[in-house]
Predict the structure.
Amino acid sequence: MKINLVLNDVATEFEIEPDALLIDVLRNAGLTGTKEGCAVGICGACTVVVDDLPVSSCICFAALCDGAEVLTVEGIARRDPGVIEAFVEHEGMQCGICTPGQVVSAYALKREHPGAGEDTVREYMSGNLCRCTGYASIVDAVRAYVADV
């Protein structure tokens, strides 16, 4: 079947199997920034933005996104490099597996709650798991990013 996406601001058509997952479609298209961590939608590493909402792409059927706007970490880095700069400046990453999902979630948070305080940041980002940082540097990065309105 064919689906159409506005993928990272570019109209794109894909030929997919009906049961194709969004993460596989994205990675097969060369957008390998999106990582698969858990494959069951709980770690947040595969987070992308679909029509302005953060979505776990590892459990999202691509067919359900037909006609949607999809932003990956690559598209967000081009659209708003400030989020990447905040993660670098505040050392909000270590191994890098969760970082794309953290960046995508931070981007979505800023659009939903510009200027969000620490409690809102911690709650919103709670769907993104990290085994390396202890979260303090991630929270600092996201707070700095969302405060820059």
Remarks:
- The mean pLDDT is 96.
- The CA atoms of residues 21 and 61 lie 4 Å apart.
